[in-house]
Amino acid sequence: MLEAIKTVASRIQAWVSSDDADREFAQELQGHLEMLTAENVRRGMSPETAARSARIRLGGVAQLQEVNRDLRGLPAIQMFLQDARFALRMLRRNPGFTAVAVLTLALGIGANTAIFSVVYAVLLKPLPYGQADQLFNVFQAKPQEGIGGTGWSYLNFSELRAHNKIFSDMAGSQKHQLTLTGRGEPSVVNTSVVTPELFSLLGQKPLAGRTFVAEDGKRGAAPVVVLSEDLWRGYFNADPGVIGSSIDLDKRAFTIVGIMPASFRFPFLTKTEQLWIPLFQDPLFGSFVDQRKGHWLQVTGRLKPGVTLARARAELGAIGARLASDYPAENAGWQIQMVPLQDMIVGELKSPLFVLLGAVGLVLLIACANIANLLLTRATSRAREIAVRTSLGAGRSRIVRQLLSEAAVLGLLGGLAGIAFAYWGVHVLTSLLPATVPQVNAIRVDYWVLGFALVLSLAAGCAFGLAPALFSAGGGLVANLREGGGRATESRGRQRARSFLAAGEIALAMVLLVSAGLVLRSFAKLLSVSPGFDVQHVVKADISLPRFQYSTPQQWTRFADELMARLHAQPGLSNSAVAVPRPIADGNINLAFDIVGSPPPSAGTSRTASYVSISPEYFRVLEIPLVGGRVFDEHDIASTGRVAVISRAMARLYFPNQDPIGKRLAFGFPPDGMVEREIVGVVGDVRDVALGKEPGPMMYVPFAQAPFWGANVVVRSTLGTDAIAATIRRQVQALDKDLPVTDVATMPDILEASLSQPKFRTFLLGLFAAMALLLAATGIFGVISYSVSCRTNEIGIRLALGASRGAILRMVLRETLVLTGFGLVLGVPSALAAARLVGHMLFDVSAHDPATLTAVAVGLAAVAVLAGYVPARRAMRVDPIVALRYE
Amino acid sequence: MTDDRSEIIRGTLDLMVLKTLDAMGPLHGYGIARRIEQISEDALQINQGTIYASLVRLTQKRWISAAWGTSENNRKARFYTITKSGRTQLHADARNWARVSTVVGRVLGLADRG
Fold it and tell me: Measured between CA atoms, how close is B31 to chain A, in angstroms?
């Protein structure tokens, strides 16, 4: 081994100083010859005989030199470099060809590299936690009722943590917002409510101070808080003395014990300005810790080394069964599931990103086909050169190697330009990416991405170099030598290869165009879909009440009432309401309910609907139409009969062919237990979860009968957003000077933001499809132009024999159409197969949408014919005299 | 590049070059070639050029080192010297060679006796 290394080292050294070594060796041989000649002379030979004999004894100097060079150098690399130098010379001689090829490749490789950098950072790069692949999220689920992964109650979690043998460490977390006061402006901060093991579980050390210890997680411990670096820098001005000092969270004093570095985020998708408090100290979740009911604590565990997934699942199954039998009221029917933390975080991004990577890969494939075609054309005109080289003794493998080297050099040039393009592309991509994409900050062109680009450019080089190389080296030596001038007629096989490549390009372009067309159509439908309420001129703002200060529902109601009274008195703000949660902006609260007087739902199913608590003006502010009965009014308060308004979808689903008004529902939401409510009205449907999701059943209750610890406001006003925000802020602070107003945004903006992911992928797919179309058109143009120029002679004869110019035009166009038709025949089934991959992204469009398919096929054919028309016109104008003299 | 015959010679030639340098001290290529021919009583008429392939191989393995110097008749020549690791290698190879040649000789002798 050591020897081999030594040899290679010495060879590299020799290779670096190759010319010197050659000269020295020549000198050495010269010396040898002289000494041998002198010896021969001493033995009595004549000087000439002595010299000749010496040369014979030594052997041919040239061969010795060659052997010496071979031994000394790195033959493969040397040969490649020699080929590469030659290739560069050839490329320089054809600047037009080189520019087109390199540019095409640079676009293809650059786009691929840029998309890969996103895929790598988002999907492949490990999360920034110690040994992140061992981290799993553990859920409770009730699959028979369609309830997927939910969280845990604290008591169930404690049981799981105590009794499992598969996780070395487990922690629970939940997040919400608390009001931070006591220093400067009051502010609402993202708060992670955690069990103290979280930090050690994720393997993270604090930037300063300490993280939580077991004592902090106990009941009655002193309230402590850990800050994120960004919060510390932003809100606390990087005050080094902050540790040990006190801040108020929801009006309770917490002692700051530590600061986590900016690289640490947990949960992963929150803002970077956040803080962590022990679960027991939280005003909301801290009060749930004694209940076994509920599913709110997100649980993460670190699998012990060596524990297989199968064993882990088996043990979780056993624990789930034990929980169900020990506490049937809360746990019957619930199972335990686990999912890798990384999958949890990137789950829904996986398939769109891979679709994009696939799409951009197809673009590169088309680019390669194009370049292969160009190379084939060139190979035809270089047939003579290659024939000469072959007859001078270059072996077939040598020629193939040289042509492949040319392709590799081209690939590398394209790769280099592509990397430059990718740097720019990554920049653009990250600015386009939806903010909800994890690891956005980690997207960059790093070594992995560069490696990918390098491999890709070499692979591309091989892909487009192989066919021409094989065809060129193939027989026909004598024919090629004999054929006159520069223009050899195309061999049949090569012509077929070119046609096949062009048809393949059309097929690939069709795949991309159909997918992009479907996604585009779906996006257009998404844009035009009505959310069920009018978003124009609607602004929302959040006011969250500190729960240690505003601890009773009566206080919450009073605050909302007073705020509404004040806002309604303001000019331009009379159209204001309170609602929790607001559609699209806040997500939804899905709640199970019973219909009084009707039998319980059959086993394994349950009745659920989205729950919304609103002030009476809400339907008017959002212009949600009343379909039947009445909306809430100022008489629906805590002391009057409990009422509810339901959506049309809920009426249809749960009260088919009945009048729901007057029927009674029973459901509970904190702080209320199970309460019966009379349905007093039916309103129009609202897409509350997402624009792309069909409206589900919804039930509304009066805020006064089901208050929240916050007043999430919606205002319809023609005033500017800033003016509205300022007015709300003034009125809120008149009620309580320590209350911040946060997250002011217009509803149109919120709707748009909710579409950022489909917008992103639609834009990119559309872009790639456009590139594919352009490349395929270029491909057709190239093939037909070349075919026309090869047939100039033939066309001249036809014209001379009386063929009309129209007939020539038709002949060339027919060739184009045959090519295109062949491409479409290949393309339709491929496009249909590929459309299935984008099927899950489609909204209100079938993956086999015939309109899209037809439009794409017709459009593609039109573009192809147009690309063929230009050379066809040229063919038509051929002058028979010139053409016949052409030889 | 090489046929079977020179494959056999290659190993033995390297060994002979090493031995020659070990016995004679620094020598140039011509000197080595002459010396091998003399020792073998001109039974081994090598193409003297092949010595240089051997010298490159041995230099690459750092078993010999080379330096420019002046030959006995005042010509510039490259002198080769055996290195410490070359000497170690030589002893190992020589032992190995002796064993192999004994065995080969014995086997051939057996065959002769039939």
Answer: 9
